[in-house]
């Protein structure tokens, strides 16, 4: 990301990061803590959560671990309750938790696995947003960042329908939440963290050549050195947490953009509906 986060101070902010046990989520949680935020780290695996919190505390930050299945409504409310009880009112939600879903033609994959991907990747961000927004509305401020993907809008990845559809849907979810919460001074963004070398991408890249999934795409990406370090997505989240890009609320933003430069043209961007999933049709259509 071309946008600098040097000097950003998030002291006094409380953040929740889902999917924070490893990979991109861990990098986001650590970066937010380094900038001064207190962080509730949520994921399903206790050992990974403990490791993330230990890393943050060794770096002088403040964090708690909250084991959470983001597709479970009761568990999500418990996550928010724990964050508010131990850290304070939530200023920032980073809805990052996601799974890859099944691979193969949409008519051949297991429908239960296909639906589970929607539960985690789409229903999860909805539940998490629904749990933090009432408090944000009462306080008149807050920010939500949802991790999406280029697979949701700029890439066609056959055999990954569940994953791609969920990432498309959360971009649209962020647009709706941004519009509905605007009058309460709440900003909502979806972001593309790039092709990050994570356990998911490493596993996919190692699949046999004839595997009908994301293996070919990730294999080529990693072999060509086009993968992005998770720290770049973390820097983007820190910048958005600072409020410097609130005028871009509703937009789909990527690590490749200069967000500070985009923010200078926010009025034009919002007027033209850029960086959104709005289909521009002809006169008299749609």
Task: Quickly describe the structure.
The protein contains 10 helices and 7 strands. The protein is of the alpha/beta class and 286 residues long.
Bulk shape: globular
Number of domains: 1
Look up the CATH topology. Answer: Rossmann fold
Give Rg in angstroms: 18 Å
Order of helices and strands: EHEHEHEHEHEHHHEHH
Strand content: 5-15%
* CATH H-level superfamily title: NAD(P)-binding Rossmann-like Domain
Main-sheet strand order equals: 3-2-1-4-5-6-7
Which residues form runs of ≥5 with pLDDT under 50? none
CATH architecture identity:
3-Layer(aba) Sandwich
Describe the structure.
The chain is of the alpha/beta class and 286 residues long. The protein has a single domain (14-192, 239-272), classed as NAD(P)-binding Rossmann-like Domain (Rossmann fold). Strand 1 (14-18), helix 1 and strand 2 form a beta-alpha-beta unit. Helix content is 45%, strand content 13%. The chain has a seven-stranded parallel sheet, sandwiched between helices.
Topology:
Layout: E1 14-18, H1 23-34, E2 38-43, H2 46-58, E3 62-67, H3 73-86, E4 92-95, H4 111-139, E5 142-147, H5 161-181, E6 186-192, H6 199-205, H7 215-223, H8 230-241, E7 252-254, H9 259-264, H10 266-272
Parallel strand pairs: 1-2, 1-4, 2-3, 4-5, 5-6, 6-7
Helix pairs in contact: 1-8, 3-4, 4-5, 6-7
Give keywords.
286 residues; alpha/beta; Rossmann fold; 10 helices; 7 strands
